[in-house]
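Readers of this paper often ask what the protein records in our data store actually look like. Such a record has a labelled line for the sequence and another for the backbone structure tokens. The tokens are whole numbers drawn from a learned vocabulary of local backbone shapes. We quote a single record here, exactly as it is kept in our systems:
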Amino acid sequence: MIPDKLYLKIMFYACCRKKLDFEDPKLFNEKLQYLKLYDRKPEYTNYVDKFEVRKYIKRVIGDDYLIPLIGVYNNFDEINFEKLPDKFVLKCTHDSGGVIICEDKNKFNQFQAKKTINSHLKKNYFYYGREWPYKNIPPRIICEQFIETPDGKAPTDYKFMCFNGQPEYIQVHTDRFGPMYTKDYYDINWKKTNIRQGVPNSDMILPRPKNLGVMIDIAKKLSEKIPHSRIDLYEQDGKIYFGEITLYPNSGFKNFINEDDDYLMGQLIQLP
């Protein structure tokens, strides 16, 4: 029942310990809150819907970049696990975090997966951070092919931080679902920065992706005319796959370790 603007001020202070300035926002996280309220293009809902976004990807860059889709379901009981491959990924289409990875169907805990997925299906992701594009997404489940590295792990996740169609920084997530999870920030020339937000940085320079130039071009096309978006891509065995589009990373509620980086990123967002 709390109006969006007041709710965001309360949450911003609770999470970031800062007062939210809607009149003259300067921080990256502040501007994300501003965009939630004042940049409401109808197409954003399709961008964040993990099923509907596939149509946008096919139209803009082609379906060669889509992870093969195995099925789409309205509820967990519709899934016929006997027909699924030994490895697969289940995702809720209407939220962030509703992901189940199956690396071996013989060891798959179907009961726990159902419990997790059903808990996500019952939630409207809009209400936590007032990310309005999620409000009217029908809750569904998609099953995708598991893209894996030679050692059986999920591939490195390259998240391109884009500003009105211009990629500026790349978050590199390594061992995303494992015990050695790290997140580094590189510029588009693949120079590592000291930017840190939440997850620890690694202590190494990661190898430059073979298809970095192509991924940058893809990120430009998918982020055109959006004040800020994060375009998630994977590269495995020389092939590029689209992951998702995120408009408000961490819902704008996670501080940078160095506040100067919050200002640095904030300067890149030109508010509508």
Q: What stands out?
A: The radius of gyration is 19 Å. The first strand starts at residue 69 and ends at 73. The helical segments are 4-16, 28-38, 43-48, 53-60, 110-121, 126-129, 212-222, 259-268. The chain has a mean pLDDT of 95.
